[in-house]
Structures are given as C-alpha cells and as structure tokens.
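Let us practice reading a record.
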Amino acid sequence: MQQPSSEPVRVDKWLWAARLVKTRQLGAEAVKGGRVHINGRGVKPSKDVGPGDRLELSSGPVKVTVVVKATAERRGPAALAQLLYDETAESKAGREAYAEQRRLEAQAMAQAPSYYDRGGRPTKRDRRRFETERDKRRDRKG
C-alpha cells in the first residue's frame, strides 16, 4: 500500500482501501444502492472523497460514520487502513450496542429448550411427538 495522501480518490476505491468493504465491486454496489452518503448526500461510485469528508455507510442494521483523514488508491495492511479514517463516537456506540444485542439474542436462543437439546438430529420418536403436538394445536385452532 502506498502511503496515505491528501489527493482525492474515487469513493468506491477508498472504501476498499480503507477496508470498510471486502471488494471494490461491493463498494461500488453499496454506493449505487444508496447505502453510502458523503457529507449527507447520496453519491455515485466515481465521486471523489478527500480528507475532511464525512462518510456514512449503512451495512444492514448498522450505520458506520467516519471522517476521512487521508486517502489511498491501493489496499494494504489493516494497520495502515485504520489511519485513513476516524470513526465517530455515535457510530462506535451504535455498532457496539448492536453487537451486544446480537450476543444477548444468541444467548437466549441457546437457553431455549429444543428437540435438538441432545445434539444432532431428532429421532423418529422425537418427530412423532412433534407431529402429535402440532396436530393437537391445529385441532384446537380449527
């Protein structure tokens, strides 16, 4: 990776070089799909980004907001990619809150009883019990 510079770079290239997306094509698709905004405006993949720009990237339910510190045309080590931007405090808090929520949901699902508690596939006996219970519920509704 070349050293970070202050020259403007295409936003899709910068997203890839900053390691915010895995491939340049995914960066271009994110921009075309309206999931990337620079300084509050939707942009095209060819839009140049430079130091001082505020970039918002929506990735699923998580919204990452960064302030561009430097630019790079080529992708390099993660340590150098982190020097290209500063993530805002609100963005970090939102990302961490979402990670905590997912962790708690996974923990709750792990504690929920299931036919699979013994591990592996349900047995024929388990399947018959399940079907019997399902049929009882259908009869009550119908």
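A brief commentary: Residues 9-88 form a domain with the Structural Genomics Hypothetical 15.5 Kd Protein In mrcA-pckA Intergenic Region; Chain A fold (CATH 3.10.290.10).
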